[in-house]
């Protein structure tokens, strides 16, 4: 990577740009001195009807090239384009982006401040707040949770009543602001047969078809292998650590025997990124209200 910040590359770009402009200027000068004989053909004929005449280019066309060369030189003096030279106006794309963002923040910040002071539950009934929250969701969240917020394999459905870390307003806001890191450790050391027994027991907890004999053995392994430490003796999980409830019908990765075996054998890692630093408190608050409304709408 050090090669690309070497001073050589600065000079490399400058030389290419300057030579290119000078070459265009030289071409204009040479063409300006060329001799033309209006009305005389060059001897080239196409399709027996089209002939090439030795006529000069229209003046307006030639002046366009002259203007282009002059414009490029003025531009390179004012704006960056000659290697590391920033131009007399000291313009940068990042600076322009920052200025535009600050200008937009000054316009919308009072609105965000208004909603920041509101209770999340009250915001779910505010049409304007929900429209703003929806647009933010489609910008930042749909890539994982989908445009309809119903999630996908490994990404939670936000429209149901199942919450790994809790669905209370403050818990949702904390999830968005601070992010979450879900880890299911690998239990490959238990062996294929014990893992299959566990998978059948886990399926039995939510009423799915299972092998009764394996399920009985799996129940014992569920305790001896330490599964109760995260999922509880009843298999209903613990929101404090984000361990899923194994007794309901909600499955983040799938409920088939093969998928559960894969989960127990290899473990799972699932990260929800933190958005507080990027979005700020007001926008996180807005998103939390919208996500809260999704679950409420599904339960009506």
Q: What keyword list fits this structure?
A:
300 residues; two-stranded antiparallel sheet; mainly alpha; 4 strands; Cytochrome Bc1 Complex, Chain D, domain 2; 3 domains
* CATH architectural grouping of the largest domain: Orthogonal Bundle
Determine the number of helices (DSSP H or I, runs of at least 4 residues): 13
CATH class identity of the largest domain: Mainly Alpha
- H/E element sequence: HEEHHHHHHEHHHHEHH
The percent range for strand residues is 5-15%
Gyration radius, in Å: 34 Å
Q: How can the largest sheet be summarized?
A: 2 strands, antiparallel
Question: What is the averaged pLDDT score?
Answer: 91
> Which structural class matches the secondary elements?
mainly alpha
- Whole-number count of domains: 3
Strand order of the largest sheet: 1-2
């Amino acid at each position: 990577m050090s090669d690309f910040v070497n001073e050589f590359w600065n000079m490399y770009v400058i030389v290419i740009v300057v030579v290119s402009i000078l070459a265009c200027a030289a071409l204009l000068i040479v063409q300006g001195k060329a001799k033309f004989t209006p009305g005389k053909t060059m001897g080239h004929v196409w399709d027996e009807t089209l002939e090439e005449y030795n006529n000069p280019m229209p003046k307006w066309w030639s002046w366009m090239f002259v203007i282009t060369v002059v414009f490029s030189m003025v531009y390179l003096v004012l704006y960056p384009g000659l290697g590391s030279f920033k131009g007399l106006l000291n313009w940068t794309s990042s600076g322009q982006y920052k200025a535009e963002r600050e200008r937009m923040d000054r316009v919308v910040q009072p609105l965000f401040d208004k909603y920041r002071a509101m209770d999340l539950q009250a915001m779910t009934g505010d049409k304007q707040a929900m429209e703003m929250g929806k647009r933010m969701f489609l910008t930042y969240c749909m890539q994982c949770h989908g445009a309809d917020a119903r999630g996908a394999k490994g990404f939670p459905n936000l429209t149901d009543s199942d919450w790994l870390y809790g669905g209370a307003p403050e818990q949702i806001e904390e999830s968005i602001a601070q992010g979450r890191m879900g880890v299911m450790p690998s239990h490959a050391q238990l062996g294929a047969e014990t893992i299959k027994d566990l998978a059948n027991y886990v399926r039995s907890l939510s009423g799915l078809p299972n092998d009764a004999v394996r399920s009985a053995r799996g129940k014992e392994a569920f305790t001896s292998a330490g599964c109760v430490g995260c999922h509880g003796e009843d298999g209903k999980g613990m929101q404090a650590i984000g361990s899923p409830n194994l007794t309901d019908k909600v499955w983040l990765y799938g409920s088939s025997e093969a998928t559960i075996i894969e989960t127990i054998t290899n473990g799972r890692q699932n990260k929800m990124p933190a958005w507080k630093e990027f979005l700020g408190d007001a926008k996180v608050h807005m998103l939390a209200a919208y996500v809260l409304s999704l679950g409420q709408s599904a339960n009506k």
